[in-house]
Write a structure and sequence with these properties.
Blueprint (H helix, E strand, L loop, with lengths): L10 E9 L2 E8 L2 E5 L5 H10 L7 E5 L5 H4 L2 H8 L3 E3 L1 H11 L7 E3 L6 E3 L2 E7 L8 E6 L6 E5 L7 H7 L4 E5 L4 H6 L4 H8 L7 H13 L4 E5 L8 H14 L9 E4 L9 E2 L1
Parallel strand pairs: 3-4, 4-5, 5-6, 10-11, 11-12, 12-13
Antiparallel strand pairs: 1-2, 1-14, 2-3, 7-8, 8-9, 9-10
């Protein structure tokens, strides 16, 4: 069950902001809170955290999915100002190090994909995803007893077997629903960029996300948060209605069988606990 109030001993998810111009997520369990990506300005992240009564000084780490600017924009300044370690795999570090500015050696942390790590109370597993970056990842998060799983997967050009393996059985999934194909094709993007967005190393369309939502629900997911919407090629209402419609076609009722929400671009979400 997902509730929107604070409690002890429950996995917690909050979007600090999600969209094509910037992404930042907050995940916590007991006394451990971390950020996944820091693609908004440092001030925007700290302000949005403050608005939901979270002190940036209590953030234990920043885990990076990949090196694109909408995922790392504020990471360097937050690390320097608040002495926060940044975690990423080797290829992502090589691709983003010069973009972050000076980071203390002690705050440059490296993980390997598809391995499980513990950070205080929180269990974290990065897994490989399909995107046109050095070595992009999504994340699974567990409570320390591994009773519940929360997962984040954005910037995914296609649904791979590895993605399914890691997202199935998640109680809550943050899933990309980036673009509407008609809006993309009629929009102002150069043709090469349109092809890149639609490719298997680009982004997930509303319909692709919606069809995968059906699989997720059938594999035990109770809440799906649609994320990383394109500002130019999507609307929150369109992403929501596309997933809701395809779920209904498969006899899955939103609000009864699954909770479905869309994460906003510039503001923090509700607090989801499971």
């Amino acid at each position: 069950m997902i509730i929107k109030e604070r409690g002890e001993g429950m996995l917690e998810y909050i979007s600090i902001g999600s969209g094509s111009s910037g992404n930042c997520h907050c995940v916590g369990y007991k006394n451990t809170r971390i950020l996944v990506d820091a693609g908004l300005s440092g001030k925007k992240i700290t302000d949005n955290l403050k608005n939901i009564d979270i002190d940036i000084n209590n953030i234990k780490a920043i885990f990076i999915t990949h090196e694109h600017s909408d995922h790392i924009k504020g990471a360097g300044i937050l690390s320097r100002k608040y002495d926060i370690p940044i975690f990423a795999n080797v290829k992502t570090w090589c691709a983003m190090k010069d973009k972050l500015g000076d980071i203390k050696d002690s705050n440059m942390k490296v993980f390997e994909n598809d391995k499980t790590y513990a950070l205080d109370d929180l269990i974290i597993r990065p897994f490989s995803t399909s995107h046109d970056s050095a070595d992009s990842v999504g994340y699974n998060f567990y409570d320390k007893d591994k009773k519940e799983k929360l997962s984040i997967a954005t910037d995914i050009g296609c649904i791979t077997e590895n993605l399914k393996k890691h997202l199935f059985k998640s109680k809550l999934v943050v899933l990309e629903s980036n673009y509407d194909p008609n809006m993309l094709m009629m929009g102002s993007y150069p043709y090469a960029l349109k092809k890149r967005v639609m490719s298997e190393v680009g982004h997930l369309s509303n319909e692709e996300a919606a069809k995968f939502c059906v699989e997720l629900v059938n594999q035990g997911t109770k809440s799906i948060l649609l994320a990383h919407l394109s500002k130019e090629n999507n609307f929150p209402e369109l992403a929501y209605e596309t997933s809701k419609g395809i779920l209904m076609q498969n006899n899955i009722i939103v609000g009864q069988d699954v909770k479905l929400d869309v994460l906003m671009r510039d503001e923090a979400s509700d607090i989801y606990r499971l």
